[in-house]
Specification:
By secondary structure, the protein is mainly beta. The strands form two sheets. Strands 2, 4, 5, 6, 9, 10 and 11 form a seven-stranded mixed β-sheet that branches. The protein has a four-stranded antiparallel β-sheet with strand order 1-3-8-7, with no helix packed on it. It starts with a strand and ends with a strand.
């Protein structure tokens, strides 16, 4: 099993930045693909970003591309989401997720594509 714990959420003004962290424990070799999702009240959980094991391949939702950056430090079993130029519509609970099998990360944009999930961390962007 893999356990994922997110941190770094909070309240920020529009245009500001936050960095989310997700620490994996357990069978961390089952984290070939790491992703971030978010869910706003009354909405479905949506894909935000994903990254391959080596960090060389990344994939972003159109809504965040150019503003968010996903990265990982495998020595620390940690994946990050740097969020810049935040907008009120970015307000949501952000979830870290892991997928054990590797293929093109562009295929891993649905919630059912991932095997493990964190508890979520709240991000609130005020205008």
């Amino acid at each position: 099993q893999v356990q994922l714990v997110e941190s770094g959420g909070g309240l920020v003004q529009a245009g500001g930045s936050l960095r989310l962290s997700c620490v994996a424990s357990g069978r961390t070799f089952n984290t070939n693909i790491m992703g971030w999702f978010r869910q706003a009240p009354g909405k479905e959980r949506e894909f935000v970003a994903a990254i391959s094991w080596g960090g060389s391949s990344t994939y972003y939702a159109v809504s965040v591309k150019g503003r968010f950056t996903i990265s990982r430090d495998n020595a620390k079993n940690t994946v990050y989401l740097q969020m810049n130029s935040l907008k009120p519509e970015d307000t949501a609970v952000y979830y870290c997720a892991a997928r054990s099998r590797f293929s093109s990360i562009s295929l891993y944009v649905g919630v059912y594509d991932y095997d493990y999930w964190g508890q979520g961390t709240q991000v609130t962007v005020s205008s």
